[in-house]
Give the backbone structure.
Amino acid sequence: MNLSDAAMIAQIAGTVLVVPTLLYLALQVRQNTKQLKAAARYQFVEATGQVNAEVIANKQAASVFRRGLSNYADLDADERIQFPFLIGQHLQIHSVMFELHEDALLTYGKSSAGPASTRNSWPTVEGLRVGAESSYDMTKI
């Protein structure tokens, strides 16, 4: 066996080894994508749980939330400061979920983040945005 034969064998071996390497990389990318999607769903559950826990645990916050939804004008000056923060937290959570959906990090089906009502609210949340920035027109609520 001369140097030319050894080079040919090395080239064939290198070509054969590229295929398993590419398959392994494809598998790793797929697993990473699944982990990103799972993390996005978990973060949604965590974020909504924290916001909902505030309203559940605090009767005054629940009262402000309920009365603000029914008639914002009936809130006193302090409650008019609290209510937009409560609503803003919900809007921010749904806005982030919409962006994750747009980036294809959330899927529909049994494993989707949040109930169907959440997914159906994304177009509404997007319609509340003011310009390209992540601020909202509270008069549209």
In short: DSSP finds four helices and no strands in the chain. The chain has one domain: 36-140.
